[in-house]
Fold this sequence. Notes:
The protein is an alpha/beta fold. It contains twelve helices and eleven strands. Pyridoxal-5'-phosphate (PLP) is lined by residues 71-73, 99, 101, 147, 151, 176, 178-179, 199, 201, 210.
Amino acid sequence: MRASVFLDHNATTPVDPAVIAAMTPYWAECAANPSSVHRAGVAARRAIDSAREQVAALVGVQPAQIIFTSGGSEANNLFLRGAAAVRHPGRVFVSAAEHACVLRPARTLGRAGWQLAEVGLDGDGRIDADHLREQAVDAGAGIASFIAAHNETGVLQDVPALAEVARAAGAVVHTDAVQQVGKLPLDFSALNVDAMTLSAHKLYGPKGIGALVVGKRLDLRAQIEGGGHEQGLRAGTENVPAIVGFGVACELAAARLAEEGVRQAALRDLLVGWLQAEGAMVFGAGAERLPNTVFFAFPGIDGATLLLALDSACSSSDHAPSPTLLAMGVSPDLARGAVRVSIGRGTSSAQLQQFRAALATCFAGLRGLTSIAV
Ligand SMILES: Cc1ncc(COP(=O)(O)O)c(C=O)c1O
């Protein structure tokens, strides 16, 4: 029996062995609290400083602009709740493509005196800038958050253009770049935003660590209060091993970005060609997308059933259709059948061939089954 192929790198990535090696001493040998003033504490503090520099270098900012959090979800919540806490209620702009950890806090603000403005998508999954412009009229002031690269479709948004519209409407602007970091170049200042979210486990780092990158003039209130950690924006004794791992993962990503981007894009295009030849609908195919992501459905075939038959670790919605696909105008039936393949550093063309062969074997049978069931 052949090994199952892991094609779910947008959900998470395996931790790089070099990252594990760098983290290991900080569990026990160098386990001091970085706030302690003894020598071991100072060494732990230095390890954090150096990781902060590595993360900052990957996105082109100063180390002081990196606020470590427990991951992408916390960083997104810190921006939305933290920015709202120091502003008079105005409009909250988010798109229909946002991750739940942006949408939910935005909707919470919508029940607490803020006006929620949810911006629609075009048929390829791009945030509709004209709809944003309409929603921005007479906004007064506000908060905006737009995803940089979509976790399901892989569609890349024109963040600088969206940010310009939102900022003209008086909003402070954030982007959730969790899926872009490590896959494509990411330069904070070119994005024209006030804050940006990163997460380590999407780029071969450990789970449970991420960062909010903050612009120098951004006013925010901490959402976890306590000691003055992370410049007073996020209290809690720092997770030193995870922070060290995040730093090394960023350094490795910077070194491999160009080569891996080209390699993975070629594999993605190969896969798209096969799928389309078999009659699949590839979502967002007309938009610029991440080099590693393909989101597709075969009309008449349920995604969860297809996954079971393929025995590959890709991803499908097992219950409700993707809200992003519905916002793109995809029918609920087709959306329910959607499967996401997200390739990674460990994905070889032989593995993709294995996936294709498995697809070919189960495809005709499934189609037959589905048509009998209908
Ligand atoms: C676009 C996006 N934002 C945020 C998150 C949350 O990141 P974390 O798992 O680090 O909390 C994810 C992870 O699935 C994501 O894909």
